[in-house]
Amino acid sequence: MATKNNKKTLVCSVITKEGPILRSIKIDHIELPSVNGYVSIYTDHCPYIVSISYGELRIYDEEDKLINLYVEGGITEVTQNVIGVLAEKAIYPKDIDVSVLNEKIEKLSKQMTINIEEKRRNNIEIDKCKKQIEIVNKINK
Predict the structure, then answer these.
(1) What does DSSP assign to residue 44?
(2) Among 4, 66, 124, 129, which residue has the fewest nearby CB atoms (within 10 Å)?
(3) pLDDT per residue over 48-58, tens digit each?
(4) How far apart are CA 71 and CA 53, in angstroms?
């Protein structure tokens, strides 16, 4: 896709099981949390499929304005300058309730665990809550 100034762009959609969060917007590039760290995708990227971890999805529109989302789980497919982000969860920072997350962190931190696996799952949930809070704090600065 080329814009008025002939700069190539990508077309990006972010979809969850509840429905589309962003639909076919033109962007410059995207940075997403994969299971192996952050991945940046620019125009003319080779066809690519990557598993999404949890963290901040950073989308830079064609004017280089940043759109932030917290994402969790799913996959991203890139083909012919089209990016499809299919996420289990995608939330705008303005929709994240920090007080609820802090309560969840406190509850999980105090919860007795039966085994190592349960403790590991609790720690992952705590990390996910902290990542959401971090994104909100970053946006509110």
Answers:
(1) T
(2) 4
(3) 999 999 999 99
(4) 8
